[in-house]
Structure of 3-oxoacyl-[acyl-carrier-protein] reductase:
Amino acid sequence: KEISKLHHNGVDILVNNAGINHVSPIDEYPDEKWDVMISIMLTSPFDLIKYFIPSMKQKGWGRIINISSMMGLISQPGKAVYSAAKSGIIGLSRGVALEGAPFGVTCNAICPGFAYTAVTDPQVRAFQEKEGLATFDEAKEKFFSRAPTGKPVEVGQISDLVVFLCSSGADSMTGSPIVIDGGFTVQ
């Protein structure tokens, strides 16, 4: 509600981008980690959309972009909870898209593949240990080479996609999970 003090007419563009991860088999998954991950990655975007969409509808224009993950479309061992939250973001985006469309409000989910961020750093370290690799740089190179492009998705590529989704060229794009993963999910 503090944002209303700064922007009396609401916001035109909302980008929900939050991600944390805890990798663990489901039967060993701590309940408190589930609660935190779902709260941050699914409940918070829901709350923000619920708060901001009325002013977007009233103005007849708005863009809601939720950052999901390729793990919202696929999963890997130990990532069931992360995948559940990111799959939920895709479903939330689709539902909001249907509700916003008559008012000129679009809602999409970007599904990035592995990008080198604070979320992937611990995964690369675990990969290094599992594979017995000598250096972190070697582990990073091998970790990201699993995508057909052989490299991580650049954060700038994701932000360029956000900018496009806010443009008039994306007026008819709504409810879409948009994959940017170097071909990882089509293998």
